[in-house]
């Protein structure tokens, strides 16, 4: 009975070693498993851990079949206790690995979200900049149009002022011509008046002379 139990415990130990080695390897490989395949991989590891737990229960029962206080029983009790401790370590290691993966996924999603938010903010900022630039271009164009309109009005006003100045100059020139003519006419009239007065004066002297001659001979 003892030899059979020890042989069975030896098989359990071999199976335990194979399973725990496989579990350790699979936990280490989780980080390289594609995200979509990770749930299945984690479930497989949990199933292996459950198998190890069942195996340890069988080992515990088999150890009880050994003689109390016998060296073999004490040895396997210590081994089973050590295996249970190792199994708890594997459970904890799996949970830590899962938590690390979740945090990594959360950070990735956060980074993706932040990157998406950054892209959205950049797009919004670029759109606002484009809108401001468009408004500035429209304002500049409006200013150019208004300036062109004002320039056209100024040119039109200058044209009207030029016409007014030209007409005033023409009127002034015509006035100068009329004034010159008036001066000429006045000069001619003055000359004629002077001539008339000279003639009258000469006639007066002639008449006086004739009158004196007449009086002289009459006496």
Structural account:
The chain is mostly helical. It has a domain at 2-132: Methane Monooxygenase Hydroxylase, Chain G, domain 1. Helix content is 93%, strand content 0%. The protein is built from three helices and no strands. The chain has helices spanning 2-29, 38-64, 71-218.
Task: Describe, in short, the structure shown.
The protein is mainly α and 219 residues long. Helix content is 93%, strand content 0%. The chain has helices spanning 2-29, 38-64, 71-218.
Helix tally equals: 3
Largest sheet: none
Mean pLDDT: 75
Uncertain spans: 109-115
| CATH topology value of one domain | Methane Monooxygenase Hydroxylase, Chain G, domain 1
**How many DSSP-defined strands?**
0
List the helices and strands and how they pair.
Elements: H1 2-29, H2 38-64, H3 71-218
Helix pairs in contact: 1-2, 1-3, 2-3
